[in-house]
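ok so heres the complex, two chains, lmk if somethin looks off
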Amino acid sequence: MANNKKQSSENSNLESPFLEELLVKLPIGFRFMVKTETESIGELYRRVRFSQSRLHQSKQYMNYASFKPLSNILLQEQDPETEHTHE
Amino acid sequence: MYAHCIPVQGSERGAIYDLNKEKILYVPKSMIDLIGYLKKFTIKECREMVDSDEYFNEYVDYLIEHDMAFKTNTPMRFPDLDLAFHSHERISNAVIEYTAGAYDIRALFHDLNLLRCKHVELRLPKPDMDGIQLKQMLRNSNSTTIRSIDIHMVYSEIVGDKDFHALLDDNKKVRSITVYGSKSRTSDYTRNLHYVLNDLEIETRKHFPANVFVVNMKFFTESHHHNVYYHKKVCIDRTGAIKNCLLHSKSFGTFSEANRLQDIDKDPEFTKLWNIRPDDIEEVRELEARYAMLFSQDIKCEDGKYYLIEPSGKI
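and the predicted structre for the whole thing:
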């Protein structure tokens, strides 16, 4: 079953971070691990260096969110029933 | 106590801020007093000071069980956390309200770069820009110190789902897009693209809720020295008026070629609110959660004391 999963992973261009020789020795769960570009995952943007500023002589500005809310706007999750009554 | 677990005394109860786990534990005032004694004296000495052994053991066990304290013979090896706050930005965050052609947005991004601004909230209250115009506007943030952009905009028929995804692909600084007044599209939570029913105009008029707490190391240290809401923040409204907060009526001129932002942080009138700490504000100085709260209300000074100006009369 694990091999089938591995094959399907290969078919969808998902590459395992481990070599096949190593996977034979590792527990079966390691076969389900695949490599993905951090750029494709919004939550991991913070690890991607992408910006620069000639003025500040830097080419390695990383993206990350502020540690505090930027303004007074805060959207909180609504109760679906309340949402329904609005409609 | 572990250095990241910091006790704060309030008027009715105390709180222990766990800055690693980013949570607050509310405790009785007497426990905060006991923690103060335990910092100065040994357990044996403290036990002698306290009337009840049972009460003492209960409090000490509670702190150890909740992973907030430990027993040691060498307390001098575990110094308190340094609560100093330093940041190199002249302006760290900006809230920009923009309608097409209201002012020179390119010059604004240029000035924010000079001020080393890191985070921008962009509000687009009118559906007057298509996807290409949005993309062009945000390209002004490339090659700047800006690290994240959050967009709040009203629903527009001329900006489709594909345009938003293209925008997120084109500009990775865009952290989230929230489209207001929209119920016909499906949010993409993995990309932080949200469609909500709420009205942007109503949301912008509300104050930050008082029951929402922000617990982290930077927020906690900054709130010991500054007003976290106003500190190093600049706001530009849809007419180009420069403000401390978009909820305020007071403005510091209109952003234009003649009145740029470059020296805004040197204006003592503009920075007046920056250093009014929660400890200085009468209504909140005795709240145990004051170092985790954001006060978006304007502040007035009467007889050398600071008070929040709150329209509803409550915090």
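quick notes: Residues 113 and 144 of chain B are 5 Å apart (CA to CA). thats all i got rn
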